[in-house]
Write the structure tokens for this entry.
Amino acid sequence: MSTGTGAGTGAHAERKAAWAVGGSFFAGVLLLVAGAVDILQGVAAVRSDAVFNRVTGYAYTFNLSSWGWIHIALGILVALTGLALLMRVPMARYVGIGLAAVFLVAQFMYLPYAPVWAIVGMALAAFVIWALTTDRGPTGDGNRY
């Protein structure tokens, strides 16, 4: 007979699991939106739009057009991964963690060109990584699918 006093039992564990599962769904939405915004940001960079700061002397200097193509490609991958997460594709969780890490690094490197969005993008990527790595699903074994 279980008394319900062991580690990981009770209402606290259920609330924590529900938060993580909700966070995983929200991570899918965030990846979809961040990917779409990244595509638009990349298109503006390819067009050499005046939206972005001109930076000289930065360690990670790329041609603005090159950054644009990088962001378009990354944005497509991130958006597709977000869509796959919402469709509950089993591998999407692991791909999402990896792409969110790449997205975080890309936003850090893009910091001088679009500082506000880069900081927001890094925070979103960190949340996505957290949400996808803490999601244990209803069984608690780490496999929701």
